[in-house]
């Protein structure tokens, strides 16, 4: 009986939106602990181990760390792309009035943090390229925090935050593709483009086999990886070609989304978090939190996100383009804005693309962790406080 209860509890944990966030948090703490323990050298050696093969025609030999950043994260971006397309076809982004609020909120929540970072680092050539770092919102962490509030907040807020984070991811993808890609090799891009067109043709012809999209998608990843554009963009391109429908019948897109959701949330993102937050702390790095780069990231995430999301939402509603989420007020939207400051996964990812100096990368990651932690705590406490005030008034 106890075994059955424990198994049921475990299944409920896996099905919950908080489960992934909890595992993510544990991985971050474990990574920081191990990176600052006698095991740090062994951990670095593990991540530096080269795996794969290569010959005159094929180059697939990379360190474990690079396989995580370029390989596993392509699967994460595939899932993000599937979510974006589903929302565009049948979800919160499917009609202009529905889509207006999260789109405007995401734009404001991306542009203001970038401007704040730029203001801090305007005359700093070594750090000015990091303006994209505070633009992102981590959907897994943000939804985990708002889910922990349960019925204390309107259900519509969670839907709004999810849609906002999805648009935010799309903006981050565009920023990475346009501003954080290296020298382009057009031959590889042409190969990838040809396969992408083939997948679009499969979609038009009604091909529903997932393998018909996934196997060519692996080749798209390979060619994108060698083109100079970051390989993770391949995941989004493949996702956009998968067919879906507006009816209740499970489409190939929805089938793949369901297949990927748990592995991504419970395995891939935690592995990425563990590999990229294994930061060995030292006194100079702590000082980096008060550098122009550190302050640009932290203030951008905490202040820029909350004010940007609230401000553009206010403009959108007051202009009649959209309306507030059902049962929510402006105070709730400010709380969601604070949760939007949980940058984490995408912010750390952009940190790695922004700088060549490993010390700057580590300092940027620490600033992202700090800003995300403060934003998450403030958002949780603020929304929880709003709920308590409402309960008192009702009584």
UniProtKB/TrEMBL annotation:
Location within or outside the cell: Cell inner membrane; Cell membrane
Membrane topology: Multi-pass membrane protein
Reactions it catalyzes: Na(+)(in) + 2 H(+)(out) = Na(+)(out) + 2 H(+)(in)
Alphabetized UniProt keyword annotations: Antiport, Cell membrane, Ion transport, Membrane, Sodium, Sodium transport, Transmembrane, Transmembrane helix, Transport
InterPro entries: Na/H_antiporter_dom_sf (IPR023171), NhaA (IPR004670)
Keyword flag Ion transport: yes
Listed Pfam families: Na_H_antiport_1
Membrane spanning residue stretches: 12-35, 100-120, 132-150, 159-180, 186-207, 219-240, 260-281, 293-314, 334-354, 366-383
Purpose of the protein: Na(+)/H(+) antiporter that extrudes sodium in exchange for external protons.
Family per record: Belongs to the NhaA Na(+)/H(+) (TC 2.A.33) antiporter family.
This protein's name: Na(+)/H(+) antiporter NhaA
Taxonomic source organism: Sphingobacterium pedocola
